[in-house]
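# nightly structure sweep
# worker-07 picked up a monomer target from the shared queue
# config: single-sequence mode, recycle default, output format = structure tokens
# input follows
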Amino acid sequence: MNVRYRVELSQSEREQLEALLNGGKHSARKLKRAQILLAADAGEAGSGADGRLHLFLP
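# output follows
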């Protein structure tokens, strides 16, 4: 899979996304997007992150 976008999150952005995932009530869409951004920032995109996150990509 080709990398379309590079994701580089700052420490504060990463902390905000992790806080979103760790607490409160949020929509499934918002939580999944947060997971995707954190995985892409960690360099997991294209290396099985789509399977680990249960994504169905064309």
